[in-house]
Amino acid sequence: MTRHFFRLGMACLCVGLPLAALAKPPLTGEALYQKACAACHGVGPVEAPKFGDHAAWAELIAEGQAVVTAHGWVGVREMPPRGGVPDLSLEAFGRAVAYMARAAGADWQDPELSASLLQAIRAEEKARRQALQAQAHTVADQGRSGAAVYEAICRHCHETGVAGAPAKGDGKAWRPLLREGQATLTAHAWLGVRAMPPRGGHDDLSLEEFSRAVADMAQASGGDWRDPSVDARLMRRIRAEIGKRERQLAK
């Protein structure tokens, strides 16, 4: 087997063909849409602009390709980072966004076809991350309890199970999440993870209120998590995990 691949590689070099040329071609925007986007942007109960809906996409298209791609990549409103598929590259994600926009009347191109467009997307991504980081330190704690935040914000997904959200009180669904630990789970959810949008889709939510809501759901699901906003050491751990996760997502 080793000799076979050696001969194959040497043959490629002899004809001036790089080994990378043997790799599979990148997935098209349509294939990526089916893989990462159709669950929300296709037919279904999730409140996302539907594929081919010109009216629903008009406002997004007006924002511009760089902004919409970058904000979706980082996570915005009910949109989880990278469409909930962590192994997507920015280029692949951008192809899927461009494909959906074209179906709604835009003339957007695949980002990797334009160096200036890809550069603009990366600049918007950086700006979006910086804005979220700055806002995290300026949004004041309104003092709402975890239960109150759950009722106002989290219940929409965590009671109905939309997009696979673990239901409050479902010990089995929450068991692997509880094993991640309070600081890690709170930090990852705050920034957006799997199908979870950043801050539950509410940029005006303080970290303290968000953390109390996570603890409230965990307590109802078998965890012994405490209110982090009255535990300075736990809040420091959560903030440290947020910083660590931000660095991972920025790569």
Structural features:
251 residues, mainly alpha, Cytochrome Bc1 Complex, Chain D, domain 2, 11 helices
Largest sheet: none
Mean pLDDT across all amino acids:
84
The quaternary state of the protein chains shown equals single chain
Order of helices and strands: HHHHHHHHHHH
User: CATH architecture of the largest domain, please?
Assistant: Orthogonal Bundle
Strand residues, percent: under 5%
Number of domains: 2
Low-confidence stretches: 1-21
Instruction: Enumerate how many helices there are, as a single number.
Output: 11
Coarse structural class: mainly alpha
Sum up the overall morphology in one term: globular
Give the class-level CATH name of the largest domain.
Mainly Alpha
User: Compute the gyration radius: what is it?
Assistant: 21 Å
Detail the topology: elements first, then pairings.
Layout: H1 2-14, H2 29-41, H3 54-63, H4 65-74, H5 90-103, H6 115-136, H7 146-158, H8 171-180, H9 182-191, H10 207-220, H11 232-249
Helix pairs in contact: 2-5, 3-4, 4-5, 4-6, 7-10, 8-9, 9-11
